[in-house]
Amino acid sequence: xxxxxxLIQQCIDRAVxxxxxxxxxxxxxxxxxxxxxxxxxxxxxxxxxHITCFVIRYIQAIPSWLKRLDELCQAGGLNFVPVRxxxxxxxxxxxxxxPHEHGLGSILDEAYLxxxxxxxxxDVLHPVCGTPLLPMDPMVANLVVRELLGEALACQxxxxxxxxxxxxxxxxxxPKRLVSMILHKQRYxxxxxxxxxxxxxxxxxxxxxxxxHHMDLSH
Length: 219
Fold this sequence. Notes:
Elements: H1 3-22, H2 24-32, E1 40-41, H3 47-60, H4 62-75, H5 81-92, H6 104-129, H7 139-149, H8 151-168, H9 175-189, H10 198-201, E2 205-206
Antiparallel strand pairs: 1-2
């Protein structure tokens, strides 16, 4: 793994170790979960543990997923450097000292930015390639994390993801480069287990809120 992805991995490892030692993020969820949108359905038993495990998996996927997207973009002759550098910078800004003060909660916004940016790039390249570049479906996971972050911060991060996308968005792809990127992509399609649906695996899903029985839906 190149040095820049190794740096992100080290930051994530410190945060996970801090959570395993102190459990601060899990404890904080006892106050946060009651305010989550009612469409987010959680397991009834130990919901904070399920959310914590979900967040750890969500964050831990970033280095390998970014690396693969980087490789695919290189194969297609696309400049991924601005995206990579900004995400790397966001993780490197987290202090290394006193890691107990900088656990999962402190890198969740960086993780959301990375996942949202990958989602946007995937959506942009889908029509060009005729198929999603990465076999990922992060919609539910990103919506859950958005709720954990709060609407104001999530909107700021969405705007930043849009700025990154504008720097990245290709006008067109050389046919030979396109073929190279699609062939490179097929290597990842053979390993579906590496692209999990984090939310579903932790029994977290979205459901339409139940309507009050007295409501008249005939009009």
